User: What shape does this take?
Amino acid sequence: MKHSRIVITGVGLTAPNGNSLGEFRQNLLRGVSGVERIELRYIGPVPAGVCHFDQLKYQKKKEVRIGTRAGGISIYCAREAVQDSGLKWEGLDKNRVGIYLGITEHGNVETENEIHAISLFKYDTKFWSHHHNPRTVANNPAGEVSLNLGITGPAYTLGAACAAGNIGLIHGAQMLRLGEVDVALAGGVSESIGTFGIFAAFKSQGALASHDDPKKASRPFDKARNGIVVSEGGCIYTLERLEDALARGARIYGEIAGYYINSDATDYVLPNPERQSECVRRAIVHAGMTPADIDIVNTHATATPQGDIQECQAIGAVFAGLAEPPHINNTKSFIGHAMGAAGALELAGNLPSFQDRIVHPTINVDELDPQCDIPGLVLNQPREAKRVDALLNNSFGMLGINSTLIIKRFIA
Assistant: This one.
């Protein structure tokens, strides 16, 4: 099984600027931001990426009330991914389906909200929700999917900070190759806008974005960038072994070609460009490729002043000297930073490039920071590419975890 080719046969997502792959992609090409201003308890108005999907499409009101926002996002994305894949779900052995969801954190939203609620009643714990424990366990999002879809195979989350979306996909591919499951629902989810703590922490670090126009608040690579726009969202993929997908005549979006995960081991927050660069290089080697084979690089860049520069240094070191460097873009400029969902959503935004050879841009770059000026950047307007056969997706996280995932055009 270790040599099995793993392919993507379904995509389900909700992002601040779209609730399907088609809508999401269209808005990326049209330059439509999904960032808006919300009123946050204890902090006030802040820009944030809010998803506007129909949570009652696949859940009853009681289930929404008992469950979590992350669980609702996960259920919506998983159901959409299964439907998009064309799998004959009713006849499928649910013991052979695995759920692997990357998360940045889980449980903060429920805990903060419940503490605030009982503070209005002099902290009387009789007002504490008896649903608290199942809501806050780390495996909650995957567990809610398993309950909703009747999946009896392995269902758990992978805590990997903002590298988690990529790692959910990587883990799903590994479990398919090991023969542990026949179908993997893999990706990443986030409900981060529900917790003031994340906003407050970024604000105290001087890393929370601000702008008079919330749609322009997320501006990676721009000289005037001033921080992160916190967002929610999710993207889950249906993954299968190639032989199984071909046997049922499935549509194939792309093939997982290679990946790599490493750690900086240098700082709690500040990234290490040398280790990021190593992660990218090793993913390319793992894919059996060279830097010249990569056509699009989707950056992790979060619009923090130092972080963007360091990632550009890392990317520049890998692709230096190429006659035709890869096209380099960024999705957070449209939707903000969806934390555990970021990598999975950002990959989805580029998947259609295999068909149309159009590269979506980074928006909101009014004046490019000279320290971020590397060859291949696609800024403000889409660009047509001569070739799109390989996508490289970077996702890096706090405590120095790095992940790079490479998807290639499927060729039988």
